[in-house]
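FORM 7B - TANDEM STRUCTURE REPORT

SECTION 1: FIRST PROTEIN
SEQUENCE AND TOKENS:
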Amino acid sequence: MSNNANTPVKKTVKKPAANNGAPNSGAKKQHRNERAHQLKIYAIGSVLILLAIVLLANILLDKVFGKSLTFDFSAGRSNVISDTSVKFLESLPQDTRIRIVGLFERPESVYDTEYQYIVPILDDYVKKSNGKVSIEYVDMQKNPGIIQSLDPSGSFDLSNKTGSYVVSYNGKIDIIDPISCYTIDTDLLNQYNKYVATGINTEYTFTNSMISLVKGFSNKAYFVTGLKENASTQLKRILNAMGTETADIDSTAGFKVPADCNLLILNGPNTDIPESMFVEIKEYIEKGGKVIAAVDYSSDNVGESYKNLNRLLNEMNINVEHCMVSENDPAYQLNTKINDSQADVAQQFSNFSSEKKMHITLARPLSASAVKNSNYTTYPVLTTSAKATKSIADENNQAKEIVTDQGIINVAMYSSYNVDDPGEIYVFGTVNFTSDVYYEQFTINDRNADFIRGCVRSMLKMSDENNVDIPVKKIDGNRLSQSKATTTVSTGVMIVFMIILPLILSSMAVVVYNKRKNL
């Protein structure tokens, strides 16, 4: 019997073939994995270092250059000051120091706030002033000492001006409410108490504030109040920009024209002046005083015939009639309305504005008084077409009844006292030259504003240097300037950032990879 079943079986084990000195494949794979891991760490580290460099460079550039590297491509150039403001700043001595203080913390984002069109342009003042203008933002609650610093006498009640700006120069200050940097839709404000900006007035407001503080006021105008009159904020801005300080004077029984009054203004009174005012203003004009008076014919005063005001004006050969001008010539009408039209500027006053027709609305006719006063010389200033008529209006300011035949009607007149230093008066049968309602819709760079400036310059013997006109800028939203953000520029930027830079970075990556892949 064979015992092969119990005999152990020998297994043959194959020896690995000799590799003639080649490295072990496992070691090679491990080496490549370690190299790939190192490359990955190197790549991530390089990206992080690059990001850190970019971030640090951005912070340093912002600290060193500030707003010097920002650009305004908006259509209305709403974030930069114009050449007019730049020339004014350049004209100032190098040691001039104008300080602008916002009485609040600077907002991190001004988008869609009342400061959206204020903060950037103030930065531009600083940028272009060569050290003459500074801007800072101070929270009065955290730094109450700012009030004493700006207003040591406490005359301006700055503690109640949070959110406003203070322009300071050599101890004199001017307070600017952000709302004054915009023109406002008056209809929405009156009907819904809603502020909707129609234009940007920031540069006009701040530049003229600086001019007033640096150069001082050379004249003073008083606005008569207490006659249910129109608001005069915009006209006051016009006068301030002409170096004329403004103040109010109440139409009380003891009314007196102040001794420092260079110009007296009756802006759209909706009720008659008192007897005492008639006497005082008459004497003021006879002593060389200057007056602007404006009325209209609206639902607010349709029942007012202005008996005392007419007594005053009759002394100067002018009479305000108790009816409304209706313009029947389509060439003169605006929006096909007979009570909203244009009027011709008389030749004698044509140098007041480059425009030869002015805008009149709800105008009262002006005529010569029944008895002529030889002490005064009187001229028409604005006249209608030869097709105009005089009408009685209803409660909606629409012509209800025609009371005259067609003919040329005066809607503004001028009269001067016949002496060496004459008293003068401009009388307007419309408030389109003086009221906020008009200027908040058409802005203080309108043709009517140019004309009223001409009237003031003529009476107060001003030169053009007293008048700094800066256009109200449109609110363009996100619309870009067609001259700066052109299709060519946009295409160029797209090519650089979408094609050229990616190609450069990709090429660099390929070069680096090829140089290191066999390491």
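SECTION 2: SECOND PROTEIN
SEQUENCE AND TOKENS:
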Amino acid sequence: MNKFDREYDVVIVGSGGAALAAALGAHDAGLSAVMIESSAKWGGNSNKSGGGMWLPNNPLMRQEGAGDSREEALTYLAATAKNEYRATSPARQEAFVDGVEDWVTTCQKYGIKLVRARDYADYYPELPGGKIGRALEMYPIGLKPLGSWRKSMASAAALPIMTDDVWLLSRAFVTVSGFKRGVQLVLRTLRGLLTGKGILGGIGVAFTGSLLRAAVVNGSAELLLETPMTDLIIENDRVVGVKATHKGTDVTIRARKGVILGSGGFDGNREKRKALQGIEGALSGVLTNLGLPIEIAERHGAALELMEDAWWGASVISANPGVEDPSFLVGERAMPYSIIVDDQGKRFANEAESYIDIGHHMLEHNITGRWWMIADKRHRRYLRNYLLVPGVKKILTAQGHYAEADTIEELATKIGIEPNALRETVDRFNGFAKTGIDGDFGRGNSAYDRYYSDPGVRPNPNLGPLEKAPFDAVELVIGDLGTKGGVLTDEHARALREDGSVIEGLYAAGNCSASVMGHTYPGPGSTLGPATVFGLIAARHIAQNG
């Protein structure tokens, strides 16, 4: 028998959304729990995220009369995520949808204020079961109640911004509603300071901060930083604990009821990504996600799935030398007066489509080439975040990632594209903009496309001709919000072997597990939604069966 340095009912690996949800579930069930985080910062990718959770048929929708149902949610998942993988089985999709209510009511039980992103559409709202307003998020919180934990958050950025602020703020200088939302954001910030709550944190900071406050600060769960897991401990064919190093010292931690892997994927493991995905990636998450928990689970017999995929998206490379933190593009791609072209000057996709789709199209189109967002001067009024920091344009220009010119032909020459080819593409697109119909890729046809748009541009709010100089080009790279492959689990979040048998005592949720969403991204928060729901499901199953 093994000797242990510490003992808990549940040992949770990681400190992001899945891990925090599992910790809250363990606390709610009266179980002792510890989260072990490999880095000196907690919160992981979840802390740096947009903070939204895609939670179909959630209680807030029903309370507000928004109209959704279990059947519609499952119909939509079958049409988007499909059932072509073991990770996307009907049983797992049903478990996710059926677990939404427990997750929402558990958050509310511990004082977490949830709000709906009422205007945010599913990413394929025209498909059967598609809806608008299924995403939930935590309301901005004061960071003072986090105490010393605030200093060790993965991202220290604090601004009380919310999901539905983003699309309106992008139009702050072109619409009354956008300007009003900007004023509301300023007032929200001042309110936090004047009421003594301190600086308010929104999106990912509110998400992880709210959960940590409930599970750790006010709850019974513990969190150990700088404590990477090095192995699982097995007794009688059951996982009973973990080996780890705590600030450089070897420790063994017993899990009387179960171990939950709630860590990130293998985002920062360049060698593995090159081998499995063909590229190293330009990750917008944390570099310390190296995939060791996945490797350890596989070594002990766990089956893996979807390792070839990630939560892809077009990004702009960082202008800070030696700092890898690309700007992940969401709404900028969809706004009028811009297009995305390849190194031949040709469009290849609907620029307004979901980020995972544009990422997949970049991968499929030309993995060794270059991609550029081309825009006229009117596109600048939509607050292009990657160019807001002083000096960024100068640095990107010197690096060859940005250019400006008075004509399309001159711009093409500066970025290495044949001038006539880019002129032909721009002229064709300008024709579509004037008719309001994108005859090549259908940009603006979907309600999701139009979420990020300018309603003052007609006849299509996503299209606008590139006619006003100066024109500019910024180079895009294939980025991601994390990998989406990992340990295969069942509807109870239990780790499975290749033959489908259960590895007793081992559970997984979040980006270290194979996503129930398969190769797609059904709606805003399709990473955090399942991560939290399956994190709670794991804790519930351990409490009932561990």
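SECTION 3: OBSERVATIONS ON SECOND PROTEIN
The first strand starts at residue 6 and ends at 13.
The domain at 6-158+199-228+484-545 is CATH 3.50.50.60 (FAD/NAD(P)-binding domain).

SECTION 4: SIGNATURE
Preparer initials: ____
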